[in-house]
Structures are given as structure tokens and as C-alpha cells.
Amino acid sequence: MANLTITGYSDEKFSSKAPAPNQYVAMLNPSSIDLGRSVEYSENSSGTSAAAPKFKQLPSETLSFELTIDCTGVVDDTRVDLKTELETLSAVVRDYKSDTHRPNYVTVVWGDTLNFKGVLTNMSVNYTFFKPNGGALRAKVKLDFRSYIDASTLAKQQNQQSPDVTHHVLVREGDSLPLIAQTIYRRPDFFVALAKANRLDKFRHLAGGTILLTPPLKSTGGKHGR
């Protein structure tokens, strides 16, 4: 199995690798990975506890895991300097870069399990095994990351999901025009305008596999969208 690999990039689009050292390959893969996805809602100001909270945003994803760096020679007899290992890891994920005036953007890749793009938020080292003279041979490194998407890519993603942009929708068995109108426009009453846009005379029973055009529709203050 491939080892988890962390790669540093100079730019927020993850297209230009940072100057060396720009990659750290885990000696031992983590035993677990914690991937966090949260949803934020605004505080309810209506005074009614039963009122539905108002959606605010989807915060960045978070990634946490622990790496064991073992420099006893048992795991890899070519990597026996713990100080060098930690310096390389820090250079990739944490150290300030004078050319970009910030630490690297990083990708964390592990086979088909993980492909994460983001920035480091915390790095802590716990030394766990020592030589008789006190020199450290083994450490556990806790790493926390926050996902990052550059502004232009984020804008494109948001635009692709916007009801102000024309989409093509694949009808599934059981779908209805009001349901599709609610999904795209958040207005089930737009189903009449949606039927007109697709020149549908009979639309109470949509055939699965049909492709519908969902153009931008705006309310004119009447009962149905136009």
C-alpha cells in the first residue's frame, strides 16, 4: 500500500510545487484519519426556540491525523535522523517562506482514501523513545489541516450551482416538475415556466431518463415564474 504523502505548493491553485524540500512521505501510515465537515447556522433571533435555524455557510473541511516517525532503523534503515525528519516535515507544512511570505499550501494524498488540499493549522510533536544519552529516536506528530479553495475556483463552483445559470437535469423515476423547480429555484411554483421552457404539454408523469433544460427564471410577482 502506498504511503501517505504531503506535498507543498507555492500557489493557491496548487499548480506550482514549492522549492525543495517540498514533499514528505510518511514512514508509517496513520492508524486513523479524522475528516470534519460542519454546517453553520445563524443564531435564532425570533425568540421562538422551535423556529428553524437559518443556514449561514459551509465552513472549510478539516483534516487531522497522527504520524509516527521511527528513527530506530527498524522501519527504514536509511531514515535514522529524527531531527532531519522533523525539519523536513516542518519545511513542507509549516515553515514561513520568504518568496511567498507564508507557509506552503499542501496536498495530503493517501491512495484512493484521501486527496486533501489545504493549509496547516497546527503541528504538535510528542517524543516517545530515546537513546540512553537522551537523543530522541521516535516521535508522534499530530497534524491538523483546513481545506482551501482559491477564490476563482470557488466562484466557478458556486456559479455552476446557481439558479441564474442554465443547467441540464436528468429526470429520475418519480421526479416531478414541482420537485425539480424546488431543487433548482427553491420555488416549486416555477414548474409552469419550467414546462414552457421545455415545451412540455403533458408533464404530470415525467419519464425517467429525460433531459430537461432549467434556464434562469425570475419571479414577476405573479403566481408562477416566467
Overview of this structure, please?
It is a single chain. The termini are far apart. The protein has 226 residues and is α+β, with helices and mostly antiparallel strands. It is elongated, with a radius of gyration of 26 Å. Helix content is 17%, strand content 31%. α3 (177-185) packs across α4. The longest helix is centred in the middle third of the chain and has 12 residues, at 82-93. It has 2 domains: 5-155, Elongation Factor Tu (Ef-tu), domain 3; 162-214, Roll (Membrane-bound Lytic Murein Transglycosylase D, Chain A), CATH 3.10.350.10. It is built from 4 helices and 11 strands; from the N terminus they run ββββββαβββαβααβ. The strands form 3 sheets. The chain has a 7-stranded antiparallel β-sheet, with helices on one face. The protein has a two-stranded antiparallel ribbon with strand order 4-5.
